[in-house]
Design a protein that fits this description.
237 residues; Beta-Lactamase; Arc Repressor Mutant, subunit A; 5-stranded antiparallel sheet; 12 helices
Length: 237
């Protein structure tokens, strides 16, 4: 049954199919709710979150509030570590957040397992399953649950990146180097070439060279026109 789930999630063709396969696996594993989030770190400290979940409608607003994620012990554990966390009421009461657990417990979030895969190029994948019944007490059974979830997370992550993220650049869009993009991003923030160079650990002359190369590739006359065109073409966010 679970082996078929690994294959099925890899074959998901769109967002709805992917969510369906993730929920199916979750419920076969004995959990009611699931959240699978693809996270992409962008320059300048912002991050993009793409979440698939079956959160109850009555709890969705609170669940989706990212300010809650900043204090939630499960999310903070997964932000910093790749080791899965098995959580319950004690996880919250231990840091003085018993009231938060009481709130979410009303919607079935009483205990669960969560983990994160931290990947190259600032990409991450979070997977958490939850239920309103205690987890198995026998260590072997609990270990098997975690292992099954870890293996599924790897398959789900591959599927999520294929389905949810752009896979191939537009052949009509010029390719800029990472350094050229970094210099353009800091220019977009109002930095001079000298300031951008200082931030990136390169000389002002090198920063100017990167900006000039980017302008030539995009057919622009100056760095400000280059930034605007890069934004229009989706090269900068």
């Amino acid at each position: 049954m679970l082996q078929q789930s690994y294959t099925s999630v890899l074959e998901a063709g769109d967002r709805d199919q992917l969510l369906s396969e993730i929920v199916r696996f979750t419920q076969n594993l004995g959990f009611e709710t699931v959240s699978a989030t693809t996270i992409i770190d962008h320059m300048l400290g912002d991050a993009e979150f793409i979440t698939l979940d079956n959160t109850p409608a009555s709890y969705r607003e609170s669940f989706s509030d990212k300010s809650n994620w900043r204090v939630d012990p499960v999310m903070q554990h997964c932000k910093r570590q790749s080791v899965p966390i098995i959580w319950d009421q004690k996880t919250y009461t231990a840091i003085g957040l018993g009231a938060k657990w009481e709130q979410q417990a009303q919607f079935g979030y009483q205990t669960g397992i969560a983990m994160a895969l931290h990947l190259p190029e600032g990409k991450h994948f979070f997977l958490g399953v939850d239920r309103d019944q205690p987890l198995p007490k026998h260590p072997d059974e609990l270990t098997r649950l975690v292992a099954d979830l870890q293996l599924f997370a790897v398959h789900a992550q591959h599927a999520a990146h294929r389905v949810l993220l752009p896979q191939s650049p537009d052949p009509n869009v010029p390719s800029l180097t990472p350094r050229e993009l970094e210099c353009l991003r800091w220019t977009m923030e109002g930095k001079t070439a000298w300031e951008a160079g200082s931030i990136l650990g390169i000389t002002e002359r090198t920063a100017v060279s990167h900006l000039t190369n980017a302008a030539q590739k995009l057919g622009c006359g100056n760095k400000h026109q280059t930034v605007l065109k890069a934004l229009r073409m989706g090269l900068l966010k």
